[in-house]
Design goal:
The protein is built from 15 helices and 16 strands. It is of the alpha+beta class and 549 residues long. It starts with a strand and ends in a 40-residue tail after the last helix. Keywords: Cytoplasm, Guanine-nucleotide releasing factor, SH3 domain. It is found in: Cytoplasm.
């Protein structure tokens, strides 16, 4: 399986575990080892052609592009071979290459076939003899991709079945060792995923052409179930909690022995439970990669081309949605901690309606009927905006002063000059008015660019609310309560709050939702996210200047 790492504007797929490691599940079919082993042991030079790109960040692995010719030096391990390209050597996945049919053919002649294949149809037919009987190069490549998708899907179903029947079923019998809450934390909604994947595989099998796999039309299967794949969001969001819970249990010997007995009873491969539980996370990462390869080797004239193209975009969107939900859930603890740092808080918790900080900054506020000018710090969340007053002496302390319901407010851009509702001269102003017309707030920024940034922020807030409605995103009551409970633990009752800059820290940790759309989005989870450099979005933090996109 591929572990996906996102690094700003570049994407790398790696690193594959070396043969001695067992932290992954290889779900691909592996060709017979007898042929290469026999040739290598006889002293022959064995060549293989790369069917897929193998991009790696590990020095011990051999990177290559599809079509590269690799000298196979060691094939004793059935999944990972040691190979050489020019002066580079390293491990590579055996399932990523196809052995040459005629190993005795001189290397120069073989490379000549590859060049001819790129030059025209005559050369393509010659290469077809090397890659497989009776199929041109691109059709053979499409056959390989289709077969890989089908085989990995069947193996994945088996792994899910092993987890559900080998572990969960046995755990439920031991009420003295596990509660239902513990099992829900460890295994998440994997049983729901198992039921869906069985239905999905049946659809793939119906569209799979066994006699001529390259003619299979499987793109429609992904399109038909694109909304069903969203169930992975719950599993992926829960996975860190599962790891923590499982780690606690594995410190007790009886649980170590119990889980090992479950594995042996189900006759599962020698991988720990946490390795099995990682497979759904890896699987949802892999679908866009497989579909991209399928599209690469599908002719535009193929009946499946448009469906595969649409399926690739659909699965990228699924991955992007899961990624966004994961980020949102990671932020709710920070929002709860921020609220706990605000003095004199009144009313419901921010998390009761909101889960995202859209923007924040200092504005001058005028409200009817007194129209008194007040300097306030504003925090715009989805559905609501909270405003606070700074402490006169301790400028890092905020006092709660009120909030506005953004679902029942309209934003109005105010021109510089006389404002009729308040009968005052204004500059860089905007107005928030309730839909019923009984409440009007006039907000003034110090600079024109700050006003424009606020106008964009209010538009972003409405788009975020609409997007959440369309995708069905919401926080559960359990998630809200747990976040507030964690925040209370950080400020125990009876103890003074630490003199910190909590809301500064909160703002600095936020990731703005308006990410550049050009960034590749199909990679979902960074299980070990690298540390990032300090944000460049902020300047003059001591004066609380609003950040700029």
């Amino acid at each position: 399986e591929l572990h996906c790492f996102e690094s700003q504007s570049t994407i790398s797929f790696g690193s594959f575990p070396l043969p001695s490691q067992h932290s992954f599940l290889n779900l691909t079919c592996v060709p017979s080892m007898v042929f290469p082993l026999q040739l290598i042991s006889d002293g022959s030079v064995v060549y293989a052609e790369a069917l897929w790109d193998h991009v790696t960040m590990d020095d011990q692995e051999l990177g290559f592009k599809a079509g590269d010719v690799i000298e196979v030096v060691d094939a004793t391990n059935k999944e990972w071979w040691w190979g050489r390209i020019m002066d580079s050597e390293g491990w590579f996945p055996a399932s990523f290459v196809r052995l040459r049919v005629n190993q005795d053919e001189p290397m120069e002649e073989y490379l000549a076939h590859l060049e001819e294949a790129q030059a025209g149809e005559e050369g393509r037919a010659g290469l077809g003899l090397l890659l497989g009987p009776g199929l041109p190069c691109k059709e053979q490549m499409r056959t390989n991709v289709i077969n890989e998708i089908m085989s990995t899907e069947r193996d994945y179903i088996k792994h899910l079945k092993d987890i559900c029947e080998g572990y969960i079923k046995q755990c439920r019998k031991r009420t003295d060792m596990f509660t239902e809450e513990q099992l829900r934390t460890i295994f998440g909604n994997i049983e729901e995923i198992y039921r869906f994947q069985r239905k999905f595989l049946k659809g793939l099998e119906k569209k799979f052409n066994k006699e001529q796999p390259h003619l299979s039309e499987i793109g429609c299967c992904f399109l038909e179930h694109q909304t069903d794949f969203q169930i992975y969001s719950e599993y992926c969001n829960n996975h860190p909690n599962a790891c923590v819970q499982l780690s606690k249990l594995m410190k007790v010997n009886k649980y170590v022995f119990f889980f090992e007995a479950c594995r042996l009873l189900q006759k599962m491969i020698d991988i720990s439970l946490d390795g099995f539980l990682l497979t759904p996370v890896q699987k949802i990462c892999k679908y866009p990669l497989q579909l991209a390869e399928l599209l690469k080797y599908t002719n535009p004239q193929h009946r499946d081309y448009k469906d595969v193209e649409a399926a690739l975009n659909a699965m990228k969107n699924v991955a992007r949605l899961i990624n966004e939900r994961k980020r949102r859930l990671e932020n709710i603890d920070k929002i709860a901690q921020w609220q706990s740092s605000i003095e004199d808080w009144e009313g419901e918790d921010v998390l009761s309606r909101s889960s995202e900080l859209i923007f924040s900054g200092e504005l001058t506020k005028l409200s009817q009927p007194q129209a008194k000018s007040q300097q306030r710090m504003f925090f715009l969340f989805d559905h609501q905006m909270v405003y606070c007053k700074k402490d006169l002496l301790r400028r890092d302390m905020l006092y709660y002063k009120g909030r506005m319901d953004m679902d029942h407010m309209e934003m109005i851009d105010v021109e510089d000059g006389k404002e009729k509702d308040f009968n005052v001269n204004v500059k860089n102003a905007l107005k928030l008015r309730s839909l019923t017309g009984d409440k009007v707030h006039l907000l003034c920024a110090k600079k024109p660019e700050q006003k424009q940034r606020w106008l964009r922020a209010f538009a972003d807030e409405r788009r975020q609310v609409q997007h959440d409605r369309e995708t069905g995103f919401s926080l559960t009551e359990v998630q809200k309560k747990q976040a507030m409970l964690n925040a209370c633990k950080s400020h125990p009752a009876g103890k003074p709050k630490a003199v910190t800059r909590p809301y500064y820290d909160f703002l600095l940790r936020q990731k703005h939702p308006s990410l550049p759309t050009a960034l590749p989005q199909q990679q979902v989870f960074m299980l070990a996210e690298p540390k990032r450099k300090a944000s460049t979005f902020w300047h003059n933090i001591g004066r609380l200047a609003p950040f700029k996109k």
